[in-house]
Design goal:
heterodimer; A: 308 residues; mainly alpha; MetI-like fold; 14 helices; B: 578 residues; alpha/beta; Rossmann fold; 6-stranded mixed sheet; 38% helix
Chain lengths: 308, 578
Amino acid sequence: MSAQTALESTIVPTPPEETLRRRRSGFVTSFLTVWSSPKARVGIVLLGFFILVAILAPLIAPYGPTQNDFARNESGGAEHWFGTTAAGEDVFSQVVFGTRVSLTVALIAGALSTLIAVVVGLSWGYSKGILSEIINFIVNLFLVIPGLPLMIVIAAYIQNGGLAMIIGVVVITGWAWGARVLHSQSKSLRARDFVTAAQFSGDSAPRIIFREILPNMTSIVVGSFVGAATAAIIAEASLSFLGIGDTTRVSWGSMLFWAQNSSALLTGQWLLLLMPGLSIALLALAFTLVNFGIDGLSNPRLREGTGR
Amino acid sequence: MTPLLQVENLSIVYEPKGDEPFRAVRNVTFSLEKGEFVGLVGESGSGKSTLGFALTRLLKHPARIEEGRILFRGQDISQIEGEELRRQRHGGFAQVLQSGMNALNPVRKIGNHFYDIFAAHGHIPPDQREARAKELVGKVRLPESVLNRFPSELSGGMRQRVSIALALSLEPELMVFDEPTTALDVLVQHAVMETIKALQESEGFTAILVSHDLGIVLESTQRVMVMHEGEIVEDGTSSQILGKPKDPYTQMLLSHYADPRAEVVELPGLTVRGGSKTVAHAPAAEVAGRIPAALDGVLEGAHDSFVVQGISKVYPPPRRGEKPVTAVDDVSFRIDPGESVALVGQSGSGKSTIAKLITGVEKPTSGTIMFGDVDVAKLGRRGLKDLRRQVQMVFQDPYSALNPLHTIEYILSRPIVNFTGAKGDDVRKRVHELLELVELTPADDYAGRMAHQVSGGQRQRVVIARALACNPQVLIADEPVSMLDVSLRAGVLALLEDLRVRLGVSLLYITHDLLSARLVTDRIMVLHDGKVVEAGDTVQVLRFPEDPYTIKLLDSIPQPAKAHARSAAAAAGAAARA
């Protein structure tokens, strides 16, 4: 007995203060893990840049986004860096203010579709039998319907929508993929002994789902949020470009819509198409790069520079 | 003559990114003569596998050979890389992995695995490859027909034999077996070990057997090295280690082996004699006094019995066209209040299915399970919750049975809140009582820790505490010590036995380990292919087994003492004749 207690006590004698400290620094550790990936570092810097631009838009932009008392169809120059639109608006100011729309849609739509994905995916993973089959059917339904046409149909049906409509459409079409990923993960966690143990401890199903299973998949939830946000940026741009929703609101997508309408390329105003397009690509890239780092958080094997 | 392998002052360090470096092997020096069969024994974390991997140069980042030399046939292999290393693998060194059976490519036939190796090293002309592959599988006692099968069509034992044959295909001079039988079932384990021994004798290669199980190693090897915290603490012949171990660590390891057939079975903290059973840890006289005062009033002990009659469980066929699987076949037994019953058998014998059936997790195909006057098979969700207040489970794997994100206090508080309706300070008090009950003191310290901040043995104590939190009548313990290091097992078993007696709960102890069954149970049932083949008093059944299956199970337990007595007798006989 004595040899055994001696062995046990040598292993992890952690004082309680240290326990607290370690728990508090959990977030910091996760951030450092993500930061340690060079790709994610680029992504975080890029994302931080866009967030700053969005917050400080009125300070950065020389003019208002809808101010249209400038000469029309001007090329880029000292006065108007990226030129002016056919309606006589400053393109640089529009790009800066457009960041706000894209980021808002990305964050809100990403968060909402992740929320739905978490609730559906986890209950699906935990349930058995007929209920699981029904959810499976619904999720598959949303997965096989091509996204963009569905968005267009829904958007056309709702008609007079602003930003809220775009967000709604993106959420409705975007949650299913995340739900499926979370489902398979929660299914494997469900088979773990600690879930059975919680059942033996008398815990209810919702409590097991949200207190036992969910905290073990935080990194996957975050990854799924970032993925959904990326998809939302692109979906918003696509819808606006197609002229669905409010075309008078200045967003990167609607800028492309108006540039296309005024045949900007034919008139040699390529900056009108390039700048919003590049911004969309860069913001989506930023989110994607961050996701590389988050992969390392959920699966240590994917951490860069560790495996050989 | 120079030894085949000379390891000089070898140190291996793990350097994980952003974490403290950790030295797993410290200044190890030893040498191996040609044809030796050496055991390398240690508990988890002792560095034995790291050392084994270093010898065959299979170490992966972040592990690194820090200093020292590995001289193989006089050449230092500790720093060679790439092509030079690859060429050494032919006729040099090979390794059989613990999970070697899972290392086969599932979409390629067994034969192709051999041909790939032959092609890579080009030492067998194409027209002789098939003949050579047949010869190799013959050596590990597999039929030639396995070459045309896919890995998924073979059993775990057969796949491990294939991976041994693959390691042999390059005619290595040095073979490292890293826990070659640990992932296998008891009976299969025994057979594979026999094959390895026979192969080593007939092929004459030098072999290192890395294992946590001193029993297996002592039984099969001539020389044993014991590792503890990265150092070799003892190096001697098997009979020396068995007879007079010098290092206290080796002595401690050895003290945890015993023959379940003996009249007196003794482990540190636990003694079981012929008929009656005593727990040295907590003599009966002291028992009453040691129950914490606060628990005294609440405890009633068990008063209902489990009566299981003719239960069967048939699972639907695994694949179309196959027969349904009968996991449990017409089993009847009863567990009376306060009784301790063992359910033993190899994997696939249906013992875990019985645990699922009597806890209501699954429903039997036929038969009845009565607990008191409750029919377990007919319970709904509400009824199951009530049943779990009375019947609790101790899980096998302490690493997966505790949620890594909760504190021990939270984990223990759940059953208290759900079943006893206690609130606030009462819950806290009860958590502390439970921690003291399982000897995790000071309770204040342990309550705030996360599961990953305590060791394996302590985790299992938490699992036991959780099972006892709602004062159940019956504990179902499914292999509660099989995942623990040998030196921790006796402590956890003693605790379980002690608490069972003190709190008066019934116990169904499920295991493949007959020694532990002997130590903590009164009655035993031996399960084979879903049927009970032998049942009765534990001591009676294990000392004087009648069924051939029980005898087979008993024989598969490594008994170093007996094996060495045999070889010593043979040697003495030979000497007398000469």
